[in-house]
Amino acid sequence: MKRLILVISLIIICTGCFNYSELNDYAIATGMAIDKSDDGYEVSMLISNSPKSSEKNYTTVVYSGKGKTIYEAIKEIGLISPKELYIGHLSILIISDSVAKDGINSVLEFLLQEPRSKKNFYVALSKDNKAKDVLSITSPLTDFPSQNLATNLKDTTNLQGSISAIDFNTLLYKLVNKGVDLTLNGFVIVGDIKDGVKESNMETNKPASYIKLTNQAIFKNDKLIAWANKNESRGINIINDKIHEMYIKVKCDNGFIVVDTNTLETKKSVDKKGDVTLNTTGKASISEITCDIDLTKPSNIKRIENKVNNKIQDLELKAINLSKKYSTDIFGIGLMYYQDYPHIYNKIKDYDKFYKNIKFKSNVDIKINTSGSIKQTLKNIEGSRYEEDN
Questions:
Q1: What residue segments make up the domains of the chain, in order of their start?
Q2: d(CA 114, CA 168)
Q3: DSSP 3-state of 96
Q4: Cβ count near 298 (within 10 Å)
Q5: Cα–Cα dist 297/106, whole Å
Q6: What is the pTM of this model?
Q7: How high is the pLDDT of residue 116?
Q8: Pairing of strands 122-126, 255-261
């Protein structure tokens, strides 16, 4: 038994050493960008194990190649890189909006067939800029631009209602299934691109340029057809139950009240006619007040809840109107309808026309939790103090 354990341990140790040595022989790509070129595509790879100097400090480098196909463009990169490309550690894929308008199926085919791709990387678009430039902008907060982009997508999804990160597997699911269309987030470049790609951009407290997440891009089949605005993007994510945390700002006399939702949940149901009911529930807390209001009165809390519920219904309506305008089923209603009533769904001859006639009913019930909040605003507290002094 002891000899068996020793043999197994040696196998594990040797295997680990072999893999480590093997990876050192590869150019490890952690980011990939796809743009249009005159011939077809320009593919760029962010290599994250590129030696910077004799001291073995490491930095990143972007290699690019062009070709009529993605495969051909990547082979062109092989003529530049001193090491063989390895995409098993890919963390993000950036596709330019110009490529996405023509369709992304052919772009994704290579990654689908590539056996060394783990298929769990994030996918996003570049808006109004080359995807290559988005991949190249350095950041003071991270060593690798690809890490910065992937982390931004992941963390912002949990904090902002307009952002929803999508990985490669989820993207494929939406593309191959009927009755559900795709949405992707986009990145924009703020500032000077030429200075942003320099290493000095990482070493300053005021970067020359930086990458910023923008709103949802909506697709019809595999083609980009429009960009949603912020409110439409929030509505899309509410309906698709992709909200982890979101703030709602409502008017209050001479100011505003900001409410932070933290347990938002939306359940969708479809009836035989195809009409949809949205039930959105959740809890929230008051984060900021810039008006005069007495929070000790239950009637005032109820007023705030009603305003929040109305605001969420309005966000949902904006998203629904956008989807109907472009006849794109970004909520997956068709897939739900097919799963619940396949015999009726299969008889639909023109789904675009059918979808535009679907009626949506929105029910929103958000409860404000005041147990952890200050019962009154500072102005009211100060007012009561002066009354006591007098």
A1: 229-390
A2: 13
A3: strand
A4: 9
A5: 60
A6: 0.82
A7: 74
A8: unpaired
